[in-house]
Amino acid sequence: MVFSSLLFVFLFLALNLVCYYSVKTIRQKNIVLLVFSLIFYAWGGAAYLLLLAGMAFWSWLCALMIEKNEEQKTRKLWMLAECLVLLGLLIFFKYMNFLTGNLSALIGFPKEATKIILPIGISFYTFQLLSYVVDVYRKEVAAQPAYWKLLLYCSLFHQCIAGPIVRYQTVAAEIDDRKVTLTDLTNGIRRFSIGLAKKAILANGCASVADTLLANTQSATTAGLWLGMLFYMLQIYLDFSAYSDMAIGMGQMVGFHYLENFNYPYSSVSVQDFWRRWHISLSSFFRVYPAWRQQRRRSSDCAQYVNCVGTDRNLAWRKLELHIVGTLFLRISCIGALCVKEGARKTAKSSRMDLCNACSILRLGII
Fold first, then answer.
1. Residue 77, exposed/middle/buried by CB under 10 A (0-12, 13-18, 19+)?
2. Which of 37, 155, 172, 209 could potentially form a cystine with 231 if both were Cys, beta carbons 3.0 to 4.6 Å apart?
3. Is the pTM here over 0.85, yes or no?
4. Omega of the bond prior to 265 within 30 degrees of 0, cis?
5. Chain-centroid distance, C-alpha 127
């Protein structure tokens, strides 16, 4: 179920808002949101609803145990357990098709490559749950005692398709106490409508032109290829920003205020500036959680190759080539920026951080 479909707009979302405003207490409103969010996830496969609930339960338990224990060693063990389970599941569902497909092609084992359907939104709710437990570990937020409220936080259907990634501390207060003003409601409807038009008219229109111009590269003209690349570039931006607009708008309709996720990235003056403006919530995730950034920086070349994954084997290797070229380009750009700004220690440090964020995002293969 996609946000721009008639089924979602005129049935699912409309019914959700009617039920939401029909109840009075904040507890009842949260239950309405939770039920509709679980239905949204179950629409893509009921079995994967258990995966979401299980990952949320594990994170809820780990956070409570971390908060309960004062001994640093015990806290680290629970934090490690959280990372191993959640990242292990994410790697399994995202990378297993890629690994078995290539093993089957290279050595003939297994004879039939594994076909695992990627659960909807698994990258986003995995990152959100990890950020929640890390924040509890750092004592930046208190652990949520109610499991169903944590499940509500990670399963809100507004931002499960393309973000933004919402940190728990951003919405913790609004889960327990929020009020929707007339301004919030009208702004939310307006923002959702802009995102819907951006997706249905502009993004889909650009996709149609790009597919036509890039369908046969052998007989295409140089001008046609450049024009096709331009429309494809616009399609990617409009798709992502449209979903973010719709997510922010739906959140405002029910009293949640998500942070902005795009800030006119194509008006950037440098590669570093681009990554500050593109998918801001994901860039911020790597900026706020430097342990991840350091771990990814020190990862082996083999692990970096595995990160470039796709459901189709040939597409996955093409993605790998793109990631390698993009990473090299970012490194060259950053070196140039550091040379220009030589002597500005603070600026150099910021540039290195932005480079690492960009490389991490590229290697994740989710933008």
1. middle
2. 209
3. no
4. no
5. 8
Contact (Cβ atoms closer than 8 angstroms) between residue 161 and residue 122:
no
Size (the chain), residues? 367
Nearest to 123 by CA among 85, 153, 163: 163
141-to-57, 238, 350 alpha-carbon distances in Å: 18, 34, 26
For the stretch 93-151, pLDDT in tens is 888 877 777 777 777 666 666 677 788 888 888 989 999 999 999 998 999 999 999 99
ω into 110 cis (within 30 of 0):
yes
> What radius of gyration, in Å, describes the C-alpha atoms of the chain?
22
What is 276-345 written as a DSSP string?
A: HHSSHHHHHHHHH-HHHHHHHHTS-HHHHHHHS--SSHHHHHHHHHHHHHHHHHHHHHHHHHHHHTTT-H
Give 175-182's long-range contacts (Cβ < 8 A, gap of 24+).
175/30, 175/149, 176/26, 176/149, 177/26, 178/26, 178/254, 178/255, 178/256, 179/255, 180/253, 180/254, 180/255
User: Cα separation of 259 and 337, whole Å?
Assistant: 29
Rounded to 5°, angle at Cα 352 from 351 and 357: 95
Structure tokens at 46: 């009921």
Contact 347, 285 (CB under 8 A): no
The whole-angstrom separation of Cα 346 and Cα 60 is 38
Say how many Å lie between the first and final Cα of the chain, rounded: 20
Helices (H), 138-203: 147-155, 168-176, 182-197
The amino acid sitting at 253 is M
Residue 143 per-residue DSSP state: P
